[in-house]
Write a structure and sequence with these properties.
By secondary structure, the chain is α/β, with parallel strands linked by helices. The protein has three domains: 103 residues, Rossmann fold (3-Layer(aba) Sandwich); 164 residues, Rossmann fold (3-Layer(aba) Sandwich), CATH 3.40.50; 72 residues, Arc Repressor Mutant, subunit A (Orthogonal Bundle), CATH 1.10.10. The chain is 48% helix and 14% strand. It has 19 helices and 18 strands. The strands form six sheets. It has a five-stranded parallel beta sheet, sandwiched between helices. A five-stranded parallel beta sheet has the order 9-12-15-8-16. Strands 6-7 form a two-stranded antiparallel sheet. Strand 4, helix 4 and strand 5 form a beta-alpha-beta unit. Helix 5 crosses helix 19, helix 14 crosses helix 17 and helix 17 crosses helix 18. The radius of gyration is 30 Å and the shape is elongated. The two termini are 38 Å apart.
């Protein structure tokens, strides 16, 4: 569907100029010279963007702005002002205007602000779509991700699940290694058999061996009865050993024997038991480095590292953050019986820009806390307490009045958008060997608009490499 733009100005030359600038794009552009007629037209026909002059006869542009935003808040209004009206334009921003242009403005300025408005509308529409339902094509069991990194993980799960191969899942804490392990099990031939989990980090050496292999009555103090081990309980199913890098060397030797011979001996017993388990291990440690240090057995490492899968950190799959956020939002709204259904654009920008040292687990707790804190149906930046607390305190100005709060929120929002835009330009240039034309073509932007963003952030190709396009 084409973008519909309405130009409202009492000067015909301004209208013709705007129409000429926007004619190169696939927009449907209408124009009016009367504010009252503009209000009636917006009521009758859905517009995406309104370019609105502040000073007009009959009715002031500010009144038209208020009318549009009250009845059609989804319409983005861009104010057009004279140089002496900048203060009025700032007031218009507070009333809901998307941005303003000071007359006379050049074509790149107009095109750039329209592009930003459309990008914002696209992001909000994506958020609405994600909120209603996370697409099934981006899911693998309970794993969510459309990023290239997660699609690669899905591919490995699909290939490895139907086999009986031992799997080693590596990745930082909170990246969802257990979720990957469960996806492997429930897509395997053992899906109707037990999936048993052992956390190797929470048990002492003696208790870990008892947990894994079981024990006989009286085999040690406190062993008041026979106990089945996890290798027995998981027989014919899958045994998932989390925090595998924390296993003591003495237990590693016994575990190697189980993997090699498919049998184990309970603590205190002289009789061996057969086991048919599929072993999946996970660790946030570098097992290869531990082998070099002598803290992990080399033979065990090669036994468990048959089919490796790496769970990428959340900072390397930022494209997945909106989908994950809405997944957790829906989950916690139902669990906590809260009516929160939206995430502001500024809050989403903050979520996407944060580095997430705690990965998906930290995002989950952040959304849960935000749902509890939200006073209406929208999560705002102020509700992302985990992120705000992680920011350097000397960079945070604490508001004292409601006006301070509005100003600071606007500054944070603009800073987040600027960071994303700057990174977007820098990374695109790097991928295209700092060729501006190829960079613009890759992003789908006009070269002039791409250069306008470069200029905005002081990014010059000649500072890095020679660009023949600029010769």
């Amino acid at each position: 569907m084409s973008t519909k733009i309405l130009i409202v100005d009492d000067e015909e030359i301004v209208i013709r100029s705007c129409q000429r600038i926007l004619s190169d794009s696939s927009y449907v552009v209408d124009s009016l010279m009367d504010g009252y007629e503009a209000m009636r037209r917006v009521d009758e026909s859905p517009y995406d963007i309104v370019l609105l002059d502040i000073m007009m006869p009959k009715i002031d542009g500010m009144e038209v702005l208020q009318y549009i935003k009250e009845r059609h808040p989804q319409v983005d209004v861009i104010m057009m002002t004279g140089l002496s009206q900048v203060q009025t334009a700032v007031k218009a921003m507070k009333l809901g205007a998307f941005d303003y242009l000071s007359k006379p403005f050049d074509p790149d300025e107009l095109q750039h602000v329209v592009d930003r408005a459309l990008e914002r509308r696209h992001l909000l529409q994506e958020n609405r779509d994600l909120k209603s339902e996370v697409s099934s094509k981006y899911r693998f069991e309970n794993i969510i991700g459309s990023s290239a990194a997660m699609q690669a993980v899905f591919g490995l799960i699909a290939k490895g699940a139907p086999t009986n191969s031992t799997v080693l899942i590596t990745g930082e804490s909170g990246t969802g290694k257990e979720v990957i392990a469960r996806a492997i099990h429930y897509n395997s031939l053992r899906k109707d058999q037990p999936f048993v989990t052992v956390d190797c980090n929470t048990l002492s050496e003696n208790l870990l061996e008892s947990e894994l292999f079981g024990h006989t009555k009286g085999s040690f103090t406190g062993a008041v009865a026979n106990k089945r081990g996890m290798f027995d309980i998981a027989n014919n199913g899958t045994l998932f050993m989390d925090e595998f890098g924390n296993i003591p060397l003495s237990t590693q030797a016994k575990l190697l024997r189980v993997i090699q011979e498919r049998e184990f001996r309970p603590v205190g017993s002289t009789v061996s038991q057969k086991t048919n388990v599929r072993l999946i291990t996970a660790t946030n440690k570098d097992l290869k480095a531990m082998v070099a240090e002598g803290t992990f057995r080399e033979d065990l490492y090669y036994r468990v590292n048959v089919f490796p899968i790496h769970a990428p950190p959340l900072r390397d799959r930022r494209d997945d953050i909106p989908a994950l956020t809405f997944h957790f939002l829906k989950l916690f709204c139902a669990e906590l019986e809260r009516p929160v259904s939206e995430i502001s654009e500024a809050a989403m920008s903050m979520l996407v820009g944060y580095d997430w040292p705690g990965n998906v687990r930290e995002l989950q707790s952040t959304v849960q806390r935000a749902v509890i804190l939200a006073s209406d149906n929208v999560i705002h930046q102020a509700h992302l307490v985990n992120i705000i607390e992680a920011l350097p305190k000397n960079e945070m100005e604490v508001p004292r009045t409601s006006e301070d709060l509005k100003r600071i929120k606007k500054q944070v929002r603009e800073k987040s958008v600027e960071d994303v835009e700057k990174l977007f330009i820098q990374e695109t240039l790097k991928r295209n060997d700092f060729n501006v034309t190829r960079s613009a073509e890759e992003t789908g932007m006009q070269r002039s608009n791409f250069q306008a963003l470069m200029k905005k952030y002081g990014i010059r190709v000649r500072d890095t490499e020679y660009d023949p396009d600029d010769a």
